[in-house]
Batch of 4 targets.
Target 1
Amino acid sequence: MSGGVDSSVVAHLLKEQGHEVIGVRFRLWQDPRAPATAKILPTKCCETQTVMRARAVAKKLMIPLHEVALEKDFKRAVVDPFLAAYRKGLTPNPCVLCNRVFKFAHLLKLAKKLKCDKMATGHYARIMKKKDVFGKPYIALLEAVDARKDQSYYLHRLTQKELASTLLPLGSMTKQEVYALAEKFGVPLERVSYRESQDLCFFPEKSPDAFLRRYIRNAKKGPITLSDGTIVGTHEGLPFYTIGQRRGLNVGGRPVPVRVIRKNRRTNTLVVAPRGEDLESKTTVTSLTFTAPLPQGKKLRLTARIRALGEKRSGTFTFRGKRGIFLFDKPVHGITPGQSLVLYRKNEVLGGGILA
């Protein structure tokens, strides 16, 4: 229970349906180096106001609220890999990692300890029982009804074990329907002042730039070049840039706007180019996981996303073990090493991996 509208509505729904409900709130690591002025901004899920909201909802529903201190575990499992990836020139997605190896892992562990049958979250995605081509039943992960709020991308690393133990009550609702339920239940949140916690939760700013500069101190400046090697500027350190970035490059005066298309760690070079030169038709994917079994070595006609709410693109996917290749039918922009490629068959999430 983050204290936000979604988890608060879920708690009310479960109680209304007659479940015996236990609330859980994790205390996560927060950047101690962040400036005090930034910490008071009402944009994150771990601020004092949301703590009080979660407690108020639990008190109203007369359910216990377990507040679990996991600061060290969170830093080790999520924050440290996030920084390590940026130091390598990658652009990681910590929310994908957090859901599988941290959040769901700790929730399931606590659920077992408390003898709970299921755990529920406020994620916008759906779970459904289906049968595979051999008639074997399995639990499928589906996109949410509300495409603008869909979070299936962030849950693609969940396995059958996690999916079988999970309830996602909001996946079949629109955000407006959830707000209507919040008003019905008297959830102590005002739509005007409430800002959803969709930014990364372990630093107060909306973008990671300032956080990265506080913790990555040895980044070296280097040349910014065009694809042909022409030097057009100087970068502040490769970790502080991401594929597709257009602003803050300090290469003004170009006849055509440019964006980052590549980071070369060996030469410490940032490569930029006009839109169009970053088009790619094929990408390698590593660290693959699947929500349900897929046949290895076969060409599979699927769609894929390379960013959370990006357009699904059709193509052909082949894999062996933890490594695969996705060949897009039409070239795409912005393939970013470190981000996730998520596989879909129609509205079902099949799994995914890390763009290499």
Target 2
Amino acid sequence: MKIPYTNIAAQHVRIKNEILSAVGNVLDHGKFILGNEVEEFECRFADLCKVSYAIGVNSGTDALILALRSLGIGPGDEVITVPNSFVASTSCVALVGARPVFVDVRDDYNIDPSMIEQAITSRTRAILPVHLTGRPANMTSIMEIAKAHDLDVIEDCAQAVCAEYERERVGSFGTIGCFSLHPLKTLNACGDGGVLTTNDPRLYERLRKLRNVGLHNRDECHFWGYNSRLDTMQSAILLIKLHYVEEWTEIRRAYADYYRRRLNGLPQVQVPNEKSNERCVYHTYVIQADRRDELKDYLGEHGIDTKIHYPIPIHLQQAAKYLEYTEGQFPVTERLASKILSLPIYPELRIDELEYIATTVCSFYDTEEE
């Protein structure tokens, strides 16, 4: 059996005709930039996240950069974040001229709130938690710390559309939420895309202008901005997929529960166990495995593709060398990087494929004991 880690093409078999019809409508009206579909998608995405406003942009990375810019964060400022995410979570801070300051994570892959305050200095402007794997960070503690120190909170929700903490959607807690609509995400465009969310009307107006080269209208520019607009074509496609995102999320959650039940008894494997106050969406299903690299090779030999998210922590990347962090400074992050393995989890997986993956993981460790 051959099981790819992702199968984007399979997602579109069921909804291809709906997507083609939506694309055809855009071709017919010809409003390719900031057409009506963009505003409709923004309104519906805001409703999905239970926030007042959403602003479509051209990538999740740009969403983070525009969020920082809208808050006036730049040279001389510091932003607290984590070293175990995709590099864009950190690069956006550096790209606006600010300094990323790392704190370690907990075993749930999210920022450890108990370590945030010791990282705060007079230059700290914001906390940037990442809801990694689609599991919400402890936003109650993070928001309490931010309020006590008068800091903004920028939520990196790239992997977490529809995730919830204390029954509230991610992207609704902080000053601004930042989402990715990359093809691999749980709500995905057929290309790049991103969204910002906020409940602040002033930030909403500023972000709308920032993503559209600072224009107040066609003829008036209020400040220098960016060309970072979500395409009308992608918005039309996303409007179709919004009909299915909750259904797809529930399938991911059911598959995660199956993995948990099958693998939880293995002493060599630690599976994610969500808490009662969390709703995880499992953009990735990440286990912590003994002899991780050997398990990955074994699964590959049996036709199962897996990934590691992410094998090299950001503080050990060449790009971050100027920050002068060293190996050993973030022990949880570094330990996890040596053990984590992402198993396939997407709604188009067949049940027999899911069973085969779980059985093959178990057989690796059964063979080990013989």
Target 3
Amino acid sequence: MSYLFGQLAKNQIFITVLVAWFVAQGAKVAVGVIREKRFNFRWFVDTGGMPSSHAATVSALAAAVAIKFGVSTPIFAITLVFTWIILMDAQGFRRSTGKQAEILNMILDDIYWKKKVKEERLKELLGHTPVEVLVGAVIGILVALIFK
């Protein structure tokens, strides 16, 4: 097990991706503290919000692979397609799921206030706006360029 961690610690692309994720999640915490005037550790591990750590992570991966191996390689093509799918999912399907959760929570609130049923609320912040995805992607690419 220690051999595996030792090898990962030497992997520049893996380190770049981890740093991009950490920067994006750290920025998410900073935005939360500024917006709500309080600290919540869940912001560091939760999904959704500004910026998209999904976008930062896969963009850093694609940029790091492009820098190390070039854009004409099969590994870059695979990474680029993977990145495209994750970016579309982050602001498409996952965002729609979050909107559905928001509507279901309104229905649950209505039922609760009429004293008929009490249910657990659903997590609403699942996906990202296009701006959150774009900012996350820019963070990922910048981290990859810094770590090249």
Target 4
Amino acid sequence: MEFRYLGNSGFKVSEITFGNWLTHGSQVENDVASQCVRAALDAGISTFDTADVYANTAAETVLGEALKGERRESIEIFTKVFGATGPKGKNDLGLSRKHIMESINGSLGRLQTDYVDLYQAHRYDFETPLEETMQAFADIVRQGKALYIGVSEWSADQLRAGHALSKELGFQLISNQPQYSMLWRVIEAEVVPASEELGVSQIVWSPMAQGVLSGKYLPGQPAPEGSRATDQKGGAKMIERWMRDDVLAGVQELKPIAEEAGLSMPQLAVAWVLQNPNVSSAIIGASRPEQIADSVAAAGVKLEPEVLKKIDDAIGSLAERDPEQTKSPAKREH
């Protein structure tokens, strides 16, 4: 495993982060989830990402149990706040001071830790003044409950506004967590340049485009049984945008490129996002422990310019690049 600095800070994270969004607390049993965390640790992963909204807080509980007994200083734990949790009452979502201050305490209890390394605004909240949100984060940092602050899926303008306030309030906004893959490149035009200017780096999710870039889905053929595309608990809905024959055919053109580079398809997908110098870490998930070792082998891989060009030629116009696709939920109905 190799490690990279997160933003303009002295804080290092593993190039591969283990995330438990679609699995722990919902799609796999807790003992298997713990085995996945153990496999991640054994593979050299030290960074773990979750959120209070995942499985309505259950994912944090599973991760806390799985990491119990690990030397706290040797691992990095990330979580997030924004989405509706608990009974989903009027103050159980968003980035109000009330929800943030109550949520950090809930997350710390479930994760069985005194602090998180990175606390992230899971989306931008159009209903709460940004000053209120950033002041709450500043207080959490001063209380020692979070060491650093990040965001997720914020636009370039939102990043600039949040970063300016963080400097005023005396804490570091060091990261953004966007979706990014060969097929989803919406951060490249605006978010990445703004982040480079601000000293913010990306922790990217879905580098394998919900598993489509693994190459297991074939054009004109039904999805394999047991795959994410057949999972009606949430996986199928997330992946459906890529389940078009033109996309699946383009992905098949990546197979010889991966073989020539000596990589599996998942390794090629993860290695590709790590070629972007503004990316500090790629988040992978797993429903089985054996899935982890393959993805982890992408750490430290350097793809030559000619390989990157072949990938661009294969994917071409199939990739989504519209920066307007970086967006948070609109104002809520009252």
